[in-house]
Amino acid sequence: MTNKLLTQLVKLRHQFNQHIKKLSKTRYLQRSKTFNFLLSLTVGIIVTTLGITTDWATTGTSTLTYKTSWIGNTFGSGNLRVQNNIEAMYVAPDGTVYTNSHWDEAGMEAGIYKDGKVIGALGDTHGWSRGGGKAVTANSKYVYIGMTQGSRGKTNEDYPPEGTTWHSVRRYDLSGKPAPFPNGRGWDKSMLITSTKSEVTGLATVESELYVSDFAANRIRIYDTDTMKELRNFTVANPGAIAVDPQKNLWIIQSKNGSNPVNIIHYSQSGKQLSQQIADIVEPTAIAIDHQGKLLVAENGPRQQMLIYDIKDQPVQVGSFGCKGGIYVGVPGEVRDLKLYGLTGVGTDASGNIYINSDGFNKSGTDLRKFSPSGKLLWRSLGLIFVDNADADPKTDGIDLFTKQEHYLMDYSKPAGKQWTYKGYTLNAFKYPQDPRLHTSPDATFVRRIQGKPFLFLTDMYSSFLQIYRFNPATDGQVAIPAGMFVGSNGADKKFLTGNWPPHQPEKGEWIWRDRNGNGTFEKNEYDRSKDYPYLGGWWVDSKGDVWKALRTQDGTAIRHYPLQGIDPKGNPIYSYSSMEKQTTPSIFNDLRRLEYFPQTDTMYLSGFTVDHPAFGDDTGVAGSEIARFDNWSQGNRTPRWRIMIPYDSTGKREVSTAAISVAKDYVFAVTVKTAEVYVYNAKTGVQVQQLKPGPEVGSESGWIDIPYGIRAFRRSNGEYLVFVEENWKGKVIMYRLAE
C-alpha cells in the first residue's frame, strides 16, 4: 500500500510540475508578479508536503554516505597521470623518460616521466586532427616526436589541404613546449613534414644531426637538429626504430617485407651498410644503446625479454633481462617484477638503471618500470584502463576485481587509490592467438560464478557481441581462456565480422561459438547459427549463468533468453538457439535498451524508451528515458511494480542522458553520459535516495561515460556497496564506496 501510494504521489508531482511549466509560458502569467508569488508559494507547499510524504514512505531507508576511490592508474587526478599507452620511449642520461603514442583520451599522447612521477607532457598533440605516433628521441636541447596532422579546411593557417595528412616530426623544448624553427610548418611552425604517405617509424640524434625513418620512401633522412634543414638521405628498406652506438653508427630495425624476415641492420652515418646484423629475433619492437655501449633489444616474441648484445665486432648476445617467457612463465599471467609482456620501449640512464615499458597486447595499457642495474624494481607507473569497467568476483566478496584484461586484488582498509594491487594479466597472445580480445575492442566485464566456477563475459561499445571466458588455474594460471561468443545479426547476407577472423564463421546471420575441444580456437564444427532482428539494446548474464538479450524491435517480443544448458567436459557453458526463448515485452516500452534479471527473487529490471517518453531520434547507445521493475517475471507478470524517469534530454540537445544502469540488492544505479553523475534509487520503491559525484580523491572530475555498461554495482557481505564507473578520460575506473 505504501509503495503504491508513493508511486502515485511521485507521478502526481511530475504531472503537476508539467502543468505549471505550460502555464508559466504564457505572456500574461510571466508578467504577473502577484501570480508568480502565489504560484511559488503553492508549489512550495505542495512539494514540501510530497517531500514529507516521500520521507515517511521510505522510512527505514538510511541515507547513503560515500567515498570516492579509483582503480587501474597510479595517479587518480590532475592533468599529469599515466597515459593510456606508450608505443615509443627514449631515456635521457639523467633518467628522464620521454614517450609517444598515437592516442591518449586526455591529450597526453607524449609524456615526461622521472623518479616514478609524471613531470610533464609534450603539449598540443591532441585535437584539431592531430595525433601522436610511434617514435621519440631527445638531445640536450630538444625533444622530437613523430606525429600526424590532418586537414581542417584552414590552409590559410597552414593546415593540410582536404584529403591530405602530414606525417611530421615535431620539435619541443625539454619542458614540453613546441619549439618552432625557420620554415617550420603548422600553425605554430614547429612541424617538419617528412611524408604524406606513412608515419615516422624511427628517430635518433647524433650530435647536431637528427635521423628520421621515412617508411613509405624506404629512406633514412638526416636533418640539422637546430635549423631542421635536410642534410642528406640514404636508402633502407622498411626502416623502423633507430639507435646510435658509441662509434656514431646506426642500428635500425628493418621490418618484415613479404617473405623476408625482420632484421636489425647496421649503417654508417653516411649511409653505408655495414656487415653486422642481428637476424635471430622474432619481433624486435624497440632498441637502445646502454651506458656501456651495448645494444638493447626489446624482443616481443615468445621470449618477452630485453636482449643485450655486445656490438664491438659481430653482434653477440651477452645477456638478457626479464624472465624468459615473460608474464607467461611460472604461473601464466601472474604479475611479477621481472615478468614482461608486450614490450614497446627499453633504455638505460647514465647510471645503468634499466627502463622497460610493457604495453600488453592489442594496447592493453601502460606498465612502465625502472630497475636498478642489478634488476631490483625501483618504481612502476601503471595506466591500465582504457574504455573499460570493473566487476567483482561474488565468491570473494569483492576482494578480486576484473577488467577486460586485468585482475586486481583489493585491500579496502587502505587509502583511496591504494586499495588495488595488479595481480594478473588474463590474455595470452601466444597460446590463444584467436582470443577475441586481440581482434575486437571489448569494454566491460561481467564476472559470474556458474556452478561455483568463475567466468568472464565481455561486451563492447555497441553491444554487438558477448564474449565468454573460463579459467583453469592448473593449466593457465591467471589467463582467461576463450570459451564462447555470441554475435548479433546484421540483417544482411554477409558475414557479421568482416576480415579473416574468426575463421569458419557462418556466411550469414548471427551465431554462437563454443570451444568444443577446449583449445581456444574457432573451428568449423563449433558454431550454432540463426538469424534475428539486427538492432541490439543490450546483454545480461544472470547469477545462474543464463544469457539475456534485449532487442530494439517493436514487435512485442524484444527479449531473448538463453537458458544455460550445462557446462561441457572442457569447462565451457553451453547455449543454443534451439533452447532460446522469446519473451513478451511490457507494453509500456517501445524501444528496449537494457535488462537485468535476478532469478533468486524472479525480478526483472528494464530500461529503455517508453510510449509516454519516447526517444528524440534514434539516440543510439543511451539507456533510455525510464526504468521499470517487474516482480514475478517468470510467471508472466508484465505490470510494473514501479516505473521512474531517469535523466534524459527530450529536446534533442543531448546535454543530459543516462548511459548505463546497474542493480545491486536494495538499490538501482544509473549514470549519466556527460556529467558522469550516479543516481541512486531505492529498488523497492523507485524513489531516488542519493546522487554520487566524483570526489576530491579524483579531482572531482570525470570524463564522459562512453559505454553501455559504464556502471557496475556490487554489495559486499558487510552491507557496503561498491559502484564502479568507467572513467575513460583520465584512464581509470572510479570506485564509489557506499555505506548505509
Describe the protein in words.
By secondary structure, this protein is mainly beta. About 10% of the residues lie in helices and about 40% in strands. The protein contains 4 helices and 51 strands. The chain has a 6-stranded antiparallel beta sheet, with no helix packed on it. Helix 1 packs antiparallel against helix 3 (about 35-55).
What spatial form do the alpha-carbon principal axes imply? globular
The count of DSSP E runs of length 2 or more, i.e. the number of strands, is: 51
Tally of alpha and pi helices: 4
- Distance separating the two termini: 25 Å
Tell me the major beta sheet: 6 strands, antiparallel
Q: Which structural category do the helix and sheet elements fall into?
A: mainly beta
Structural Rg: 29 Å
Oligomer: single chain
Strand ordering within the main sheet = 31-32-33-34-35-36
Poorly predicted segments: 1-61
Strand content: 35-45%
The overall pLDDT average reads 91
Query: How helix-rich are the residues, as a percent range?
Result: under 10%
